Amino acid sequence: MAPSLITPPAPMPGQNRTAGRPELVLPPPGTAAAAPPQETAPARRPIAIIESPVVSVQELCLYYGESAALQRITMDFPRQQVTALIGPSGCGKSTLLRCLNRMNDLIDNVRTTGQVLLDDQNILDPALDVIALRRRVGMVFQRPTPFPKSIYENVAYGLRIAGISQRQVLDETVERSLRRAALWEEVKDRLTESALGLSGGQHQRLCIARAIAVDPEIILMDEPCSALDPRSTARIEDLIGELGGEYTIITVTHNMQQAARVSDYTAFLYEGELIEFGETQQVFTAPSKKETEDYITGRFG
Ligand code: ADP
User: Fold this and answer.
1) Residue 8: per-residue pLDDT
2) Taking CB atoms and a 6 Å cutoff, what residues make up the pocket around ligand 1?
3) Where exactly are the structural domains of the chain?
C-alpha cells in the first residue's frame, strides 16, 4: 500500500463532516514518506481520465499581453463533483477558473488559444452568448458581493434579469435557494430587510443562494472562504460538500487542508501549467509527480 503523506485533521469549529470525503491534513515540511518502490507501485497517471465530463479544456493557453498565464492546459472537469484548483500564488488558478465563464473578457489585453468545451460548444467562441453562459456557469467570489437590496431581491436578481416576474415562481425559488444555501432559517423572517445587515458568513451564503437561484450546472468559487472567520468557513465548506452532489463545483483555494476536506478531485497548477489532476485522496496521499509532493508537503509555495 502506498504510504500516506497526510494524517486526519481536527474538524473546524462547528463543522459537520460530509460523509465519504477524505479527511486529510498535511505533515510538517520534510516529513513526507518515501515514494513506493517502482516494481510494486502501479503506474499512476498525472492527469485523470474523466468519463462524461461537464467541461473539457483542451490545449488552453492564456496571455495577459505578452505574458503567458496558462500554458497548454488540457483537463476534463467531472460532472456533479467538487474539483479544487490548488497551487502557489500566481500559478494561474483564478485565471483558469475565470476562463470557464469568460470572466477574463472583462480584462484588457487578454488573448486565449485552445478550447473550453461545454456540451461540445467552445465557450471561448467570440460569438457565444456570454449572458446565457453565465446562467449555466455561476460564480461566487472571494469577497461576498451582496447588492444593496433586500435579502429577497438579492436572491431573485438573476431571475428578474431573465425576465421572470411571477410572484409565486420568485417566492418559491427564493425560498428553495436560501434553503439549499443553508440560510433560510436565519433570514426567513427578514426577507425584506437590506442584505447589507447580514454577517460576512451570511453574505457568502446569500451569494451562493443567488448563484443557485438561476439553476446553474456549474458553480465556480474563487477562494470563497478566504475573507471569512473559521466558523463561517466551516459552514461554507459543509455547504460545498452538500451542493457537490447536485452541481459541478470548481473551487480555487490556496488552503490545501480545505481542498482535502471539500473536494472529490484536485488539480495542481504550477507556473501556468497543469502538473497533476486526479482524485483528491490520491493526489494528497500518493501524488504522481515530485512537484505535487513537494507542494503538498510544504516544501514550497
Ligand atoms: P492565482 O489565482 O494562482 O494566484 P492568477 O490566475 O491570479 O494566479 O495569476 C496568474 C498570473 O497571471 C500571475 O502571474 C498574475 O500576475 C497574472 N495576472 C493575473 N491577473 C492579471 C491581469 N489582470 N493582468 C495581468 N496579469 C495578470
Assistant:
1) 39
2) 64, 69, 87, 89-95, 107
3) 55-296
Strand, coil or helix: what is 187? helix
Tens digits of residue pLDDT in 39-75: 565 667 789 899 999 999 999 999 999 999 999 999 9
Ligand 1 atom with the smallest distance to the CA of 95 is: 6
Burial 184-222 (b: 16+ CB within 10 A, else e): bebbeeebeeebeebeebbbbbbbbbbbbbbebbbbbbb
- Round to whole Å and give the CA distance between 187 and 195: 10
Q: Using an 8 Å Cβ cutoff, are 110 and 263 in contact?
A: no
State the Cα–Cα distance between residues 16 and 69, nearest whole angstrom: 37
In this structure, the residue with its CA closest to atom 5 of ligand 1 is 92
Q: Which CATH number fits domain 55-296: 3.40.50.300, 3.30.450.20, 3.40.50.1010, 3.40.50.10280?
A: 3.40.50.300
pTM metric for this prediction: 0.88
